[in-house]
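**User:**
Make up any protein.

**Assistant:**
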Amino acid sequence: MPTTRTNSPADVIRTPDTAGGPFRRGALSIGRRLAVCFLVIVVSMVAADTVAFWQFRRTVAPSQRLNNADEASLAIARLHLDVDAFRDKVAALESSHDTNQFSTEAAWLRQSFLQDVGDAQQTLSIAPEIGREDPTLPVALETLEVTLPSQLDTAVRLAVAEDWTAVQLRLKTQIQDLIDLSSSLVQRVDRQVQRQRTKAIEDAQTAQRRLFIVVPVAGLLTLLVAVALGWYTTQSITVPLAELASGTQALARGDFRREVNVGGNDELAVVGRAFNQAGRQLQQLYEELRDSEEQWRAAFESNPTMYFIVDSVGTIMSVNSFGAEKLGYTMGELLGQPVLNVFYEPDKDAVQQHAQTCFQQPGQTTKWEARKIRKDGTMLWVRETANAVFLKRRPVLLVVCEDITEQKRAEEALQRSEAYLAEAQRLTQTGSWAYRAGGNALYWSEENFRIWGVDPQQGAPDLEIVRQRIHPEDRDTATEYGWRAVQAATDYSHEFRIVLPDGTVRHIRSVGHPVLSASGEVIEVVGTHVDVTERKRAEEERDRLRKMEAELAHINRVSMLGELAGSLGHEIKQPIAAAVTNANSCLRWLKRDRPDVEEAQEAAARMVEDAMRAADIIDRMKSLYKKDAPQREMVNVNGVIKEIVLLLRNEAARHGISIRSELAADIPYVRGDHVQLQQVLMNLLINGIDAMKGMDGTGKITISSRCDDNNELLVSVSDTGVGLPPDVNQIFDAFFTTKAHGTGMGLAISRTIIESHGGHLSATSNAGRGATFYFTLPAARGVPA
């Protein structure tokens, strides 16, 4: 749609005109022009003042030189008076012979003289013209500075020595010479001062005459510059203003063709060009206003937003094509129809009430959401913004409709997601929460309210209320743990108990995560509370079952040892009988007429070995009888195998069964309970012995150990007995047995022990006779094979 754009001064093209340079009228902006004029006037005034000050300095300079010369003459005169005073003091001494008084006055006279000499030298340095005219003056001063103190010291020594004749001679000769020198010095300085005075007077008169000429000339020139610049500036502003005033009067009369002629690039020129441009644009204004209605109607109909105009009785007066198309109608089908016809039936009353509110409050915008029905019966959500206005003195409602169907679907999806989350929290008994760093509650989930027994109507409780719900025995520990984690800005997880108002105790696992700001400060803490009461009960039940398993394992060991009582008795009896035999031998060797001590010692040593062997057997049996809690340690499985083979060797031999060991030398250690592993191996060997009892021929049990490909320890126990039942896995069930005297718990307990060690116990039938039991154990980390 063509529109008229109002041009700003910056949009007006500046007319390039450089003739005359920067001082051409209008070449500079008004502000810069005034600033330049002011700067030139200030510079002119500063230049005039500088010239006047320079002339004044030339007038004052001769007076200053004259003053310096007078000070030099006065300083030389004081020096001459000091020499004359010295002569008078020496003359008084020559007549009075008062040495003490002379010595006292001599010190003061020295100090005064040296100070006057210094003053004279300083004044001569200030008035260098006198020194340049007579270069001998500084030399004469240095002579007096050295000679007078020397004469003074000599006079004091002569007075002390009472050599008054010498004093008189010095007074007439040397002191008189000093008087003559100082007098000559005074005369020469006076002549120089007189010449300087005459020259200074002449220079001052000359400078004064120049000052009377320069100052008026400089002031006049400054005034002329100011007048010229003021006239120039005034003309550069008033002439364009007059032209602009004339053009404004023409514009007021309706003469849009009149253009002002203001040249240059300053503000007035910009205003002039803008004025001309505005006049040309005003000529087009009427035509553009005439086309405005058609243009706005085109925009109204083609805009991708639904627009409706509804009268006070609810009839559609106007609708754009997009709005009609969105509802599936043509514009002709909607015009003149009640607007409520396109709304979903349950929403019509609310829409009508909103419309009445708009008509009651014209000029105020009202928004609402509603559902509309398309021509094909489908529904869409819209957000309507309405405002009541007057068109041709009739109240109408301007309505803008925005399709929010997708947004509503997203909101519904979010609500479903929140419902799923709430259900998941209920199923897992997990509540979520959030607190500010100061302890104020931000959020509690519904499940969290249920876990803590808090009424949701009262809102999320603060930390103090939560703290009071914690079990008194856990309160301080839990509070301190959470506080330290938040202070350290680290995640935390710990468990504690809470007590509900009805006295119910629950176990809670709390997980927290501090949320940090950009500066690293904790601003809030979010986390979860998990009700682990059921898990705790399950753990307690599991511990109880574990204790029962340990009891059953102990009973199983004791029952196995009961079955082996005869063999174990024979095993213990052998070393005891050998010890008795060796003891008798030892006694016989000692009862001889000549006791054979060496033989007796050997017999005693064998007796000790037999006793130790019996003690070892008893210790191994004792460890199987002990009822201790499992102790995990580094275990050499080959050593355990050797112990059990040694323990069951006689039992196997009693039934004609041999036990063969094939143990790898490089197997790794395992971490486990020594006694439990003994029990597993004993159970497997006894089962093998039982499987071969009463069979013809010699039975054989082979037990081996090695490392498999997964770096796990593999132990196998193979026999040549009756073999396994068809359902092999059945033998590991509790209370299943194929032996008349069995309890059916041995293999079940053995599998439980092996699995608790991270291994696996299995069995297979051999190709010929018998069966083989295998179990694996993970190698201990960090322990070499």
